[in-house]
Design a protein that fits this description.
alpha+beta; elongated
Length: about 55
Amino acid sequence: MKNSKQKTIKKANLPSKICLHCNRPFNWRKKWEKTWQEVKYCSDGCKKNARIK
C-alpha cells in the first residue's frame, strides 16, 4: 500500500478490519486496494458461510 507521496507503507502500519462473520481481525491486501471500503469478510469461506445463515 502506498501513501499520498507514493512511499511504501510497512506491513505493521496497514489498515485492518474485523470480519463480520468470524470476528477476527484482518489486514489490508493488495487485491483489495480498489475495494477496501466494501470488504466485510476476511475470506471467501466467511463470505459464503455468512450468506447461509
